[in-house]
Design brief:
Strand order of the largest sheet: 3-2-4-1-5
CATH topology of the largest domain: Alpha-Beta Plaits
CATH superfamily of the largest domain: ACT domain
Radius of gyration: 20 Å
CATH architecture of the largest domain: 2-Layer Sandwich
Helix content: 40-55%
Strand content: 15-25%
Structural class: alpha+beta
């Protein structure tokens, strides 16, 4: 079973470091991440998900691959790839944001301007090794799918490892 965890940080820089640490833990096989993203809210209140591929770009890439495969079967791989890229790009450009993106952006609305959050879906992990490395960045829990007991342990760890840390205003 996987758990979703969203942690808010006072700045994008700290959130970037926490995200990098999560990814390092994944590389070291201490955590098994399904996905992790950074969400920022700029000083004007606009919520963004940096480094997220644009829907039309990812649609074009997927369409080109599929079109190329179909084109290979029809002995016209370049034509198939071109048609697939155009169709995929068009579909991505006109498609609405999916539910996941909308949920991430709604969490981003809870951030104060200038803050950032890391949202991660964790499939499995070694808590006693991972938690101290993540706790060094502090932060406030925005949302989790953890049990209340595990969420309380996470909140305590985030505030315990940062001298003088206080919960951020909601």
């Amino acid at each position: 079973m996987s758990d979703m965890i969203a942690v808010a940080y006072p700045s994008e820089d700290i959130a970037q470091k926490a995200l990098a640490e999560l990814r390092a833990l994944h590389t070291e096989h201490t955590l098994l991440l399904a996905d992790a993203v950074l969400v920022t809210r700029d000083d004007n209140g606009e919520v963004t998900i940096p480094n997220r591929p644009h829907p039309s770009a990812s649609g074009a890439a997927g369409g080109a691959l599929l079109g190329g495969l179909i084109g290979t079967l029809l002995l016209a791989p370049l034509l198939g790839a071109a048609i697939g890229a155009a169709a995929g790009g068009l579909h991505g450009a006109v498609a609405d944001d999916d539910d996941q993106t909308q949920f991430i952006k709604s969490l981003g609305q809870r951030l104060a301007p200038g803050q950032a959050a890391v949202i991660a879906v964790i499939i499995d992990g070694t808590e006693d090794k991972a938690l101290p490395r993540i706790a060094q960045f502090g932060g406030d829990v925005l949302h989790t799918s953890l049990s209340q007991h595990d969420e309380d342990k996470l909140r305590l760890a985030l505030h315990h490892h940062v001298p003088g840390s206080q919960p951020m205003p909601s």
